[in-house]
From TrEMBL:
This is Phosphoribosyl transferase. The keyword Nucleotidyltransferase does not apply. Keywords: Transferase. Residues 11-168 form the Phosphoribosyltransferase domain. GO terms for molecular function: transferase activity.
């Protein structure tokens, strides 16, 4: 796999490089599933380059007490909670985890309610599925997405992202059939440090992307 320097002008610039690295899936009718909100602009570029469908996979991180950006686990759209072993080492209580998971699940439900009227969910069964994130720190969120999707029986499951630390990449390897990434820098403190432009992607931008993206060109898998 071609690797690139661990710094990118923007998510869009990283997506162009990822699309090049994913070129083997062009012509295989891939389903590109972006993790909202930051990965949606990347997913659109990759889906267009590979002549595939674009949709979202809804998972939310469970942040550490007092440090919500540090993921100690994640909750998926089914309500299943996936915890990183570090949660136990940090002494995070079960009640905190349940409460935070419930709060994040409400965000997931609200987003699905927003997205479905303009872009009905696409069935991943039997499809080549590429899960896109901008970058991965602990791997909790992307790992939850991969576990959820594996249960939905895709033909092949690929994770694509710009940057992640080597230890996180090692933990993600068993969860996907392929990992496609641009670099694995060390030290690694936060995803945003590897992008010149790491602006927040707003709800309005996500909705506009989905509004302009047709739902699946294929009927659901029988």
């Amino acid at each position: 796999m071609t690797t690139y320097p661990p710094h990118y002008a923007s998510r869009e610039a990283a997506a162009e490089l990822l699309a090049h690295s994913l070129a083997a899936y062009d012509g295989k009718d891939p389903l590109v599933l972006a993790i909202p909100r930051g990965a949606l602009p990347m997913g659109r570029i990759i889906a267009n380059a590979l002549h595939g469908d674009l949709d979202v996979v809804l998972v939310r991180k469970i942040g550490a007490p007092g440090n919500p950006e540090y993921a100690v686990g994640a909750v998926d759209e089914s309500g299943r909670i996936w915890m990183d072993p570090i949660a136990g080492r940090l002494g995070i209580g079960e009640q905190y985890i349940r409460d935070e998971a419930a709060r994040q699940l409400e965000v997931i439900k609200a987003r699905r309610a927003q997205y479905t009227p303009i872009h009905p969910a696409i069935d991943p069964r039997g499809r080549v599925v590429i899960v896109v994130d901008d970058g991965v720190a602990t791997g909790a969120t992307l790992g939850a997405a991969l576990r959820l999707l594996r249960q939905q029986r895709p033909a092949r499951l690929i994770a694509a992202f710009a940057v992640a630390p080597p230890d996180t990449i090692a933990r993600l390897h068993p969860l996907a059939d392929d990992l496609v990434y641009l670099s694995a820098p060390e030290p690694f403190h936060a995803v945003g440090e590897f992008f010149t432009d790491f602006r927040e992607v707003k709800d309005e931008e996500v909705l506009e992307i989905l509004r302009k993206t047709p739902s699946s060109r294929k009927p659901p898998h029988p």
